[in-house]
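<context>
A single protein, sequence plus fold
<entry> Chain with its tokenised backbone below
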Amino acid sequence: MSTATQTPDRTDGGPALTVPPASGRAARLLRRWPVAVLVLLIVAPFSALPLPGLLDGPVGSPGSLQLLATCLLFGALATGYDLLLGRTGLLSFGHALYFAAGSYATNMFLLEAGLPFAVAAVLGLCFGIALALVLGSVSLRVTGIGFSMVTLAFAQAGSILVSRNPGGLTGGEEGRAAPAELLPSSLVGIDNTANLYWIALAYLVLTLGVVHWAVRSPTGRVWEGIKENERRVEVLGLKPYGFKLTAFVLAGALAAVGGLVHLLLTGGSTPQTTTSDFTLSLLVMVVLGGSGTRWGPMVGGILYTWADHRLGDLAGSGAVAELPAVLRVPLSQPLFLLGVLFVAVVHLLPGGLARLPSRLRRPRKENP
């Protein structure tokens, strides 16, 4: 049955015109929204558009681009983490370890070995993948809450190791700054913030592409089966362990790349990225956006990171300082504001922000 509509015959005897319905054109345009958003993100550094309340300055200013790049970075990181939580049903509390491994390993290859940046980056990525392979092969020997506890133990051990600063390699609680003279000159300095922003955007596109390809592959179908019923997958003659390890290593590799991008954005490695609190933040991002959805973790990561930065400014603003103590005390705590936002979204939008469009369409279907 054709979706086209036919206009009445023309009075001059000419052929009738056939035009597609407006709804069909609108649907095709809506399906292309990711391309439009990507184009806008690519040209953002050239924009002088002010966004009061959202950004401190124009979109293309260095401060705004730094914040946007950080949001894109964590949007990608949450998307990679959802390979475990939302796609395979693995609740890991140690994902931050591989993010930190990519950052610290690359930095140490630069500082201690004096290697060129490209070589150090490749070695740092290989180290993060190897670490995910080794620790994943051990952690996945157990399932359920046991798996979560083992990953938490590895994360805590890594965090303690970094804070103890063995051999002066990690910098302890202060972290270690990356050597500017060994980094590409196009990635150093406030004048090159746009280049760092584009790298963060490229990392987001890479992560989305890899995750989309992996989920739609035959292995991704098995991940879905493992999440739903692992015992049934075993009955079908498949060994879940190998498939879960593949998801674990792939997610760890994407996290290691994110650690490398974070190293460039911040100019160093920080011990905060090794803690289990960091992984808990990723968990909140995924739940906020919508676990197991294509765009939800990315949206959750971007929104959470933006709110984490901007709510801190709100908490310290003069408007909050002038409020009565009963309001000023809680509102001056950024974590309190983030917690309220998270609880509100979870309560009002079960399934995360990714479910919002379907919820908005539902009343229209019920009331045509």
